[in-house]
Amino acid sequence: MPLQKLQLRPGVNRESTTLANEGTWFEMDKVRFRSGYPEKLGGWVKDSGPNTSTLQPSTGTLWGVCRSLLNWLNLAGFNLLGLGTNLKYYIQNGTGGGFYDITPIRDTAVAVASAFTTNTATNTGTQTTLVINDPGHGAQTGDFVTISATSGPVNGVLAANINGEHRITYLTTGTYSIVVTGTASSSGTPAVSATFAYQITTGSAVYTANVGWGAGGWGGSSGPSAATTINGGTPVTAVSTTAITVVSTTGFAASGTIYIDTEGISYTAVTATTFQGTITRGVSGTTAAAHANGASIYQYPSSATGWGIAAPTGLGIGQQLRLWSEANFGQNLVLNPRGGALYYWVVDNTPTVFNRAQMLSSTNTNTQNGIQYWLADAYCPTICNFVMVSDASRFVIAFGCNVQGSTTLDPLLIRWSDAEDILVWEPLETNDAGFYRLSNGSEIVGAMQARQEILIWTDAALYAMQFIGPPDAWGFQILADNISIAGPNAMTSAANVTYWLGLDKFYMYSGRVETLYCPLRQYIFGDINLQQQYQFFAGTNEGFNEIWWFYCSASSTVIDRYVIYNHLERIWSYGNLTRTAWLDTPLRNFPSATGENSGNAILVYHENGVNDASVNPPVPISAYIQSADFDIGDGHNYGFAWRMIPDITFDGSTVNNPQVTFTLRPRQNPGANYNTADTPTVTSAQNYQNQRNYTVQQFTQIVYTRIRGRQMAFKVSSDGLGVQWQLGVPSLDVRPDGRR
């Protein structure tokens, strides 16, 4: 028989059986299609810029899992990259530059007189853990605190070893532990004053379901709204009581629930120094216990919880992961942890001076390194889910936020500042500030700036927000209902078309909303973890006309898969890869992405080299693609494949003699297992002395095989360092070999 060309249709199809998909590709990993032909994905390189924080996990590694990236230039030409993790927010100045911690401080840093103690007196001389007594700390385990101005040594630990940033390792109602660099040389409880700057409460890296006891609000738990101590002269016993005498009830609600140690106690009335009325012990699933005179008492907002406090109704269902949204307002940055406050970062045109972001609605003035942070008016949202700066007239827009005068988040409410003014939020006849509440759905999931409008996704509909000028400033219209979106970052735009990942299919919007055909739909949505859907995200790779989506497979709680849509050629591909954020920016040479290293973030640049250089030394990228089954003739006879003429190039490889493996996988019938495969190695016929002047190599040598089957699948794979390849049209010589 003459040679048969293995001319397969571009793209991969998993919507049917391997035989029904004859003539196309069926399985793959780390392979894309370019001009209709499969090729190995480009490599990636780690950005090893130093973490400039005094407390860092390791060089080039950031605290937490990064979920957001934003790249912009300031007026001095600095190439700034914002990175938001579940633990912190960083700014990087230029590729390979330092990562600066600008994580906001909760409100402002407050000087507190506090007692330090060693954890146990028996470990004197070796103990490096200090316990700090601060009844109003409002922190949770894993939070960060910066200590300064310590007035003296603590149990022999010098102030210089205490001052600086620390991570809280354990806490109780009024105390918490930190680890210092010095060791204790004595025991005791010296009263030493210091200044404590508590960073905003850390968030979760993944969605946690059914957390119940101790569950935090959206993005993490909050601190107490009021605190006092027992001042009754006698302890509160474990039995019922008619009143609890305290130092002061200032700041406490007229009725509600207080927490002493781990017990919740409700009351219906207060005086200046007592909780009284109807006293109910052991509420919220706690147990009544005795409490000593001087014990700390706390009260928490109804919308949040503190450490060790049972979650209010509805918060015990699950805890969402920490997501950041951010946008540059001129050269400065406005940012928001989902479910938290709005913050503002003012850039300093000195490459080594990076201030912390400040709460936009703070009631305290603040100046850092000579930079004055102006404060927004009293109408500025204090809590929201997503923030954006519009292209039209630079409005700062808060999606899913509180009504002025309330601390309760309305997940469908949109509020915007005056044009060109981040500080003015009060709607007046003399400005363009305003608000609007959507009606379709239960919450705003996300929003994105499109060509002539802002697209807003609720969990049930898609809206368009268009600038219409005074007096209303913005107009709203519904574009589609009964649709879905997987998460706040599951959308992106390319060539003036918006694409997004739904809960059961893909969508596109080009003036009208349409379902995007996907030949991988069953493969993706049949094996996906929708409980972690807020992790899912999209990004572009415009150098290859691609849309990338990253998601979690059904058995994984972290992202482990990707799917690619080539919007120019309308071709799909897929594979396995762990990434947590993606940004295709023209301000940097390569697409930026973040991965994980021992639970913390690393920044990598894709399409850079041909290896996985996120580790040192680099390791190979294993890539393969396999066809669907094809018949020998019409499938009536067995066939014997005895030779193959490969057609492959190694353009871009960085090693001598790059090689791939061709595999023919025969089987008797569609329901049978694949038989023993024949895997001849295809190598370059030329040695290259100068790797930089590598030229395209086409192969003409014959590969001899001995394979017999009724159907066959063809596979090309590689797992070597420095190997890059693109497949052409190989030919296979098959002759009839009987009917059984």
Tell me what the structure shows.
The protein is mainly beta and 740 residues long. 1% of the residues lie in helices and 41% in strands. It is built from two helices and 63 strands. It has a seven-stranded antiparallel beta sheet. Strands 2, 54, 55, 58, 59 and 61 form a six-stranded antiparallel beta sheet that branches. Strands 5, 6, 50, 51, 52 and 53 form a six-stranded mixed beta sheet that branches. A hairpin with a 5-residue loop joins β29 and β30 (343-345). Residues 109-115, 118-125, 211-222, 303-316 and 684-698 have low confidence and may be disordered.
Layout of secondary structure:
Layout: E1 4-5, E2 25-29, E3 31-34, E4 37-40, E5 44-46, E6 61-62, E7 66-73, E8 79-85, E9 89-93, E10 99-101, E11 110-118, E12 129-133, E13 144-148, H1 159-162, E14 164-167, E15 170-171, E16 175-179, E17 191-198, E18 208-209, E19 226-229, E20 244-245, E21 256-260, E22 263-267, E23 269-270, E24 274-276, E25 280-283, E26 296-299, E27 318-319, E28 324-329, E29 332-337, E30 343-345, E31 358-359, E32 366-368, E33 371-373, E34 384-389, E35 396-402, E36 409-416, E37 434-437, E38 444-449, E39 454-458, E40 461-469, E41 473-481, E42 491-494, E43 497-501, E44 506-509, E45 513-516, H2 521-525, E46 537-541, E47 546-551, E48 561-566, E49 571-576, E50 581-583, E51 592-597, E52 600-606, E53 612-613, E54 623-627, E55 630-631, E56 639-645, E57 648-649, E58 659-667, E59 681-683, E60 703-709, E61 711-718, E62 726-727, E63 731-736
Parallel strand pairs: 5-53
Antiparallel strand pairs: 1-63, 2-54, 3-4, 5-52, 6-52, 7-8, 8-9, 9-10, 11-12, 11-17, 12-16, 13-14, 13-17, 15-16, 18-27, 19-26, 20-24, 21-22, 21-26, 22-25, 23-24, 28-29, 29-30, 30-31, 32-33, 34-35, 35-36, 36-37, 38-39, 39-40, 40-41, 42-43, 43-44, 44-45, 46-47, 47-48, 48-49, 50-51, 51-52, 54-61, ...
